[in-house]
Specification:
about 525 residues; alpha/beta; Rossmann fold; 3 domains; 6-stranded mixed beta sheet; 16 helices
């Protein structure tokens, strides 16, 4: 781990300077950094960001001195975890500047006795007898095995993190939904963690000690990603990523990524990109001085624009172009609605919480082939079909994007062009997953989003789907309380009561929207 000659050089220099002195050594034995601190500690500057493979350590070990004969500190162990170092060792400095006791720590592939690292020590550096190369190779092999499912994973692994107040039940429900979002986005959930705090930490959201445990757990489980069940502020993202090299995203970013995967139409892609740009703009920053290169040039006064300012300006220009493109899309939608208005066909829009079975019900009613999967946000692009009732009444029925609790504001604004379909609707068919244990919260979330869109006065019919997965008493109770209809969208035999109810509601709609179009007036012959 460290030769006696290097140990003596370090302790002698530290004794002369009355400061802690450390070196960062790679696996070839080369010193890549010399760090000089004060009497109590030292600050490790940014390290190269290589070796990001799952289950790999940093490939560097820190050897530094302690002037007060103290053992490894909590800060030393945090550096070991946050930076994924091979090892951290502390050399005590004797009265004559000679090396004394040595204490070293390395991470463990699996926790032992509640600890994620082990400490080796000896009264002198020569007493620390171990084959360091062999130790690190075996550790990395175990880390790789502990984070593997044996199938040569290609999917990213994520640790899901919830920081909550007094209500643990609400936090567990929200985390269950976050896990569904993660799986729908193609992530493999390696672990979940909920921390209850009376007050959120303004820098890390959670405590620094718990964050240390998370970093170690990520390494032990082979996780590439930490997903927070909250919307992190730009400063919180910076603070967390400054302490760990693991990628950090929040709930909003996960939903945006999921929408980006699902978008198929040009309109959907434009809307998702606009939401992503709005999310990214306040979070754009330079990670080092290399992003502050000047581009003034001949004829320019002052420093000119920094790289960061150019990036922001380009994003703002892109945002402006996206808004223009979506404006044209909105106008095209208005044009496409004109024939529908002339026909005066009633418009029914299917809404509801994501994965409630909206597309399955749409397909069952219209015999369409819209993608219907047991995944969140399987449908992003609205689809419309004609539906003919048994009494020869025709309507337009539309399948729309699903809602979710705490839907990101930027996403809601970006999808206004799509949600305009709801403004044109004469009836909103609110599909509800009766089998979901969070059914009441999901219904309330949809009602809140409708209110935020100014649609709370629309006529709404609640359709309780998946009645085959719930008790008959629950279905009857919910239908009685909300004047709704219970169906199973996968069973056509349960649909007739819904069709009858829809036909009754359509018959009661204002005559101006449901009556057939008037015959065009006869053209009178003009005199010669």
């Amino acid at each position: 781990m460290v030769t006696p000659e290097l140990a003596r050089h370090l302790t002698e220099i530290s004794h002369d300077l009355h400061r802690q002195v450390g070196v960062m050594i790679d696996r070839q034995g080369s010193i890549i950094q010399v760090i000089v601190g004060d009497a109590r500690g030292l600050f490790i500057p940014p390290l190269p960001r290589e070796r990001g493979v799952r289950g790999r350590l940093k490939g560097l070990r820190l050897i530094h001195t302690h002037l007060d004969l103290s053992p490894l500190s909590q800060d030393d162990l945090m550096d070991l975890a946050f930076l994924r170092l091979d090892a951290v060792a502390a050399l005590t400095v004797g009265p004559q500047g000679l090396p004394g006791r040595i204490q070293a720590a390395h991470l463990l592939p699996q926790p032992q006795d509640g600890r994620s690292w082990t400490i080796l020590e000896a009264p002198h550096v020569t007493g620390l007898a171990l084959d360091f190369d062999e130790l690190i190779s075996s550790l990395e092999a175990e880390f790789a095995r502990s984070g593997s499912d044996g199938a040569g994973k290609t999917r990213e692994r994520a640790i899901l993190i919830g920081v909550t107040g007094p209500s643990r039940a609400a936090a567990e429900d929200s985390m269950a939904e976050l896990a569904e979002l993660a799986r729908s986005a193609g992530l493999e959930v390696a672990a979940t963690l909920i921390q209850r705090r009376p007050r959120f930490d303004p820098r890390f959201l959670m405590g620094k000690g718990k964050l240390t445990e998370l970093v170690i757990q990520a390494l032990q489980s082979g996780a590439d990603l930490m997903v927070f069940d909250a919307e992190l502020s730009p400063s919180q993202v910076r603070s967390i990523t400054d302490f760990t090299e693991i990628k950090v995203i929040d709930r909003t970013q996960l939903i945006l990524d999921l929408f980006a995967q699902r978008a198929r139409s040009r309109e959907g892609k434009l809307q998702v990109e606009m939401a992503q740009v709005k999310y990214l703009l306040p979070r754009l920053r330079g990670r080092d001085d290399a992003l502050s290169r000047l581009t003034g040039g001949i004829g320019g006064r002052g420093p000119g624009e920094t790289r960061l300012e150019i990036d922001k300006r380009r994003l703002q220009e892109r945002l402006h172009r996206l808004q223009q493109d979506l404006g044209r899309v909105r106008a095209e939608r208005q044009e496409r609605r004109q024939p529908r208005r002339r026909l005066r066909l009633p418009v029914l829009s299917i809404i509801g919480y994501t994965n409630a079975g909206k597309s399955t019900l749409f397909n069952a009613l219209t015999h369409a082939q819209v993608l219907a999967e047991d995944r969140l946000f399987a449908t992003l692009d609205p689809t419309s079909r004609r539906l003919r009732f048994p009494r020869e009444r025709e309507v337009i029925i539309t399948d729309t994007v699903g809602f979710i609790k705490n839907l990101p504001k930027n996403l809601l604004e970006a999808f206004k062009a799509t949600l305009e379909e709801l403004e044109e609707a004469d009836l909103l068919i609110h599909v509800i997953d009766l089998s979901n244990p969070r059914v009441q919260e999901q219904m309330a979330a949809v009602d809140d989003i409708l209110a935020s869109l100014g649609l709370q006065d629309k006529t709404v019919l609640k359709v309780f789907n998946k009645m085959d997965l719930a008790s008959a008493n629950l279905a009857a109770l919910q239908c009685r309380m909300h004047h709704g209809v219970a169906v199973s969208a996968v069973d056509p035999r349960t649909l007739p009561p819904l069709i009858v109810r829809l036909e009754e509601i359509v018959e009661e709609l204002p005559v101006s929207r449901t009556s057939p179009p008037e015959a065009p007036p006869a053209v009178a012959a003009l005199p010669d």
